[in-house]
Amino acid sequence: MLKVKVCAIFLISSLLFAATAAAQNTKSLKTIIVDAGHGGKDFGAHGGYEGGMNSYEKNVTLAISNKLVAELKRQLPDVKIIPTRTTDIYQSPPEKADIANENKGDLFICIHADAVALQTGRRQIGTRQETRYKVTGKKKKRKKTPYTVTVPVYEYYKIGSKRSGTSVWLFAAHKTSEKLKALMKNGEEMEVETDNDSTYNSINFADPEYRMMAQVHASRYQQKSIKLAGLVDDEIDKTDRAALGINQRQKGIWVLQATNMPAILVETGFITNHDDERYLNSDKGQQEIAECIAKAVKRYKEQLESNKGNAVPAVEDKAEQKVLKEATTSKYSATDRN
Ligand SMILES: [Zn+2]
């Protein structure tokens, strides 16, 4: 009885697996995860310069993310859109990645806002009188004569950055997996897009799980990520905003690497720039960014579905297939792999 049951379950699950695989072939994009960067105790970047709005990145990313989710639902009604958060809550980068992986996302879109280190300026706001002493004579004849001078009084302030515009970031796979292999060997540090949590500052490339994930990204998802990033950049370029192009950081971005799907990170604008900060905090600006990304995703989906095999090469390499399978199926039993 037990044997029959096991066989039946095996058969059913095999059929289900085949059906899922078939569905995946006809519809390349079923689930999109939208991540509003930071949140809760992790405020992200701050527009704390003179004349600024004192806004925080976590609020801007949430507002844009909520609009993006709505826009994607409107433009792609047959695609499941899952936000990592819809309110001001804290999530560690691994928590965000888990949401994406557990929901089996086909695309991961991170929303962030850029910042640069602010320079300090000073200006004179008045004068004050200061007593100084003129010393004359030597030894016992030494005499100190007070006199007053007028000295300037300064005020110090943070200067908003000149840099503005929208950029798209990719997992730092450095185009070839060879470079990535070298990275993994050296155990290079990964950059985490968070200010307050130092727990995940580096990624352990000695951990086979991460090595597998990294390899999957490098060999397969990177092409899709580049495609989408290019389309987002193109849509931004059609607006009045500066499209700063596609970038790969020398250091990796943890959450892009840890998600088992094509992933991009959009630095929507500079919260430290006067005009950008206003744009990012405005309904109009948030909506424009959301529409740009949604249009890009729609084009990405259309290209993927109309140009199968050309747009993104299928996984032909047996070894690569193995890596992909292992990385996606044995997340919690990584110890036996090396
Ligand atoms: Zn950020």
List its traits.
single chain, 338 residues, alpha/beta, Aminopeptidase, 2 domains, six-stranded mixed β-sheet, two-stranded antiparallel ribbon, 9 helices, disordered C terminus, binds zinc ion
Describe what this molecule looks like in 3D.
By secondary structure, the protein is of the alpha/beta class. It has two domains: about 30-115 and about 160-335, Aminopeptidase, CATH 3.40.630; about 120-160, no CATH class. It has helices at about 1-25, 55-75, 95-100, 175-185, 210-235, 255-260, 275-280, 285-305, 320-330, and strands at about 30-35, 80-85, 105-115, 120-135, 145-160, 165-170, 190, 245-250, 250-255, 265-270. The protein has a six-stranded mixed beta sheet with strand order 2-1-3-10-6-8, sandwiched between helices. A two-stranded antiparallel sheet has the order 4-5. Strands 7-9 form a two-stranded parallel sheet. β1, α2 (about 55-75) and β2 form a beta-alpha-beta unit. It starts with a helix and ends in a 9-residue tail after the last helix. About 35% of the residues are buried. Zinc ion binds near residues 37, 44, 112 and 193.
SSE layout and pairings?
Layout: H1 2-26, E1 31-36, H2 57-75, E2 80-83, H3 93-102, E3 107-114, E4 119-136, E5 143-159, E6 166-170, H4 177-186, E7 190-191, H5 208-237, E8 243-248, E9 252-253, H6 254-258, E10 263-270, H7 274-281, H8 283-306, H9 318-329
Parallel strand pairs: 1-2, 1-3, 3-10, 6-8, 7-9
Antiparallel strand pairs: 4-5, 6-10
Bound molecules: zinc ion (ZN).
The site of zinc ion has 6 residues, from loops.
